[in-house]
């Protein structure tokens, strides 16, 4: 049943929306999540959670469960076939979580949903937000079934094509890169299960990431990406761009998709009673696995600021959130952009690029700096 009034309406029931709502419920606020899907996502999509994100998720009590179900990896490497150009270790990072955690997005969503429901929160499905009005005292969100929910604040966590962002008049300028990408989850023999690798092969970029169930995620930049990649296609990617000594063999394709890269950051994260978080506020290359991490960090920071505004009537922390989270998004978008551009230099230049990386990658400063950037703790 649709509530008539709550303190906060969160539009979007992905990881970001669920995390915002969970933190608000933990702090005793009334909140409802509205999502247009009949049920949560059952494909993996984002699959990496970094150290800083795990630290922040401690606040809502889900980090331990995520680690129980995920795969801890302490190593990352930029490679050319079997050669490590830039080895990166998370082992010595100044954090309680000196690793990157591999876990499919559907499991992350499930854990967040279970925690939200433990705290008395609800997700209304399948409903789309179609209308928004604001006043000095609050806002109203109209759903596609005609129901209207009154709230003090509205959180837009409804993705890159956010309806709430558009209704609030917030702009998210940027670019769509002229790059096509394939994503394929496979089972394969002969792939290392102890590190995430970013292969800068002459044939093109290939990310190889182990997943908790023993499968692997392959992400590749290609000229033409098939809508439904098959086993032969996945094998061709590995043979041309992956390790050679172990001669990996794809035995099964589990799931696949294709996508384009958008690099966009909202001009402002706040318009009166509306706040942006996650892909509604920023979107960028998947290089380095930063997208969902940045969104989850948005979620916790925003929920804390909303709690102060609701409890004390002080909205200054909302403005601080809008400014600092946007600054962090620009940093992350810049990092992902540089990695993507470096991976996709013109083919004749790639051997020279790899030679330079092989030299620069020996430096501890390079390795430690990249580890901290990926983990979300560049200033420690």
Structure description:
The protein has 380 residues and is α+β, with helices and mostly antiparallel strands. Helices cover 34% and strands 29% of the residues. It is built from 10 helices and 20 strands. The strands form 4 sheets. It has an 8-stranded mixed beta sheet with strand order 6-5-14-15-16-13-17-20. A 6-stranded mixed beta sheet has the order 8-2-1-12-19-18. Strands 3-7-4 form a 3-stranded antiparallel beta sheet. A hairpin with a 2-residue loop joins β14 (195-201) and β15. It is elongated and about 65 Å long. The model has no long low-confidence stretch (mean pLDDT 94).
- Average residue pLDDT: 94
Helix content: 25-40%
Order of helices and strands: EHEEHHEEEEHEEEEEHEEEEHEEEEHHHH
So what's the overall shape?
elongated
Radius of gyration: 21 Å
Structural class: alpha+beta
Helix and strand topology:
Layout: E1 8-11, H1 15-26, E2 31-34, E3 48-49, H2 51-57, H3 63-69, E4 71-73, E5 75-80, E6 83-89, E7 100-102, H4 105-118, E8 122-124, E9 129-134, E10 139-143, E11 148-151, E12 153-156, H5 163-167, E13 174-189, E14 195-201, E15 204-210, E16 216-222, H6 231-241, E17 249-265, E18 270-271, E19 274-276, E20 282-283, H7 291-312, H8 316-343, H9 350-360, H10 364-375
């Amino acid at each position: 049943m649709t509530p008539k009034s709550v303190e906060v309406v969160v539009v979007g029931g992905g990881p970001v929306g669920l995390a915002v709502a969970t933190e608000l419920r933990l702090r005793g606020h009334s909140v409802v999540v509205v999502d247009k899907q009949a049920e949560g996502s059952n494909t993996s999509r984002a699959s990496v959670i970094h150290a800083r994100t795990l630290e922040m998720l401690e606040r809502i009590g889900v980090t331990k469960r995520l680690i129980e179900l995920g795969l801890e990896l302490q190593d990352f490497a930029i490679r050319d076939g079997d050669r490590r150009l830039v080895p990166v270790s998370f082992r010595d990072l100044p954090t309680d979580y000196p690793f990157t955690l591999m876990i499919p997005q559907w499991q992350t969503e499930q854990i967040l949903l279970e925690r939200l429901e433990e705290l008395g929160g609800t997700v209304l499905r399948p409903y789309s937000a179609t209308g928004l009005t604001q006043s000095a005292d609050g806002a109203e969100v109209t759903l596609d079934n005609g129901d209207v929910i009154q709230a003090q604040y509205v959180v837009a966590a409804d993705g890159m094509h956010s309806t709430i962002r558009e209704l609030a008049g917030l702009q998210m300028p940027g670019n769509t890169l002229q790059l096509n990408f394939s994503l394929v989850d496979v089972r394969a023999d002969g792939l290392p299960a102890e590190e995430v690798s970013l292969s800068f092969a002459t044939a093109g970029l290939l990310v190889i990431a182990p997943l908790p169930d023993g499968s692997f995620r392959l992400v590749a930049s290609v000229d033409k990406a098939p809508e439904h990649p098959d086993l032969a296609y996945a094998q061709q990617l590995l043979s041309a761009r992956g390790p050679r000594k172990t001669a990996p063999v794809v035995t099964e394709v589990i799931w696949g998709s294709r996508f384009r890269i958008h690099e966009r950051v909202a001009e402002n994260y706040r318009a009166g009673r509306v706040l942006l978080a996650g892909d509604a506020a920023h979107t960028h290359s998947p290089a380095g696995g930063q997208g969902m991490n940045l969104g989850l960090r948005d979620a916790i920071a925003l929920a804390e600021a909303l709690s102060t505004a609701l409890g004390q009537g002080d909205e200054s922390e909302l403005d601080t959130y809008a400014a600092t989270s946007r600054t962090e998004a620009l940093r992350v978008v810049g990092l992902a952009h540089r990695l993507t551009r470096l991976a996709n230099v013109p083919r004749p230049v790639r051997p020279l690029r790899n030679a330079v990386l092989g030299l620069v990658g020996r430096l501890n400063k390079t390795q430690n700096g990249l580890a901290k950037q990926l983990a979300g703790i560049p200033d420690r």
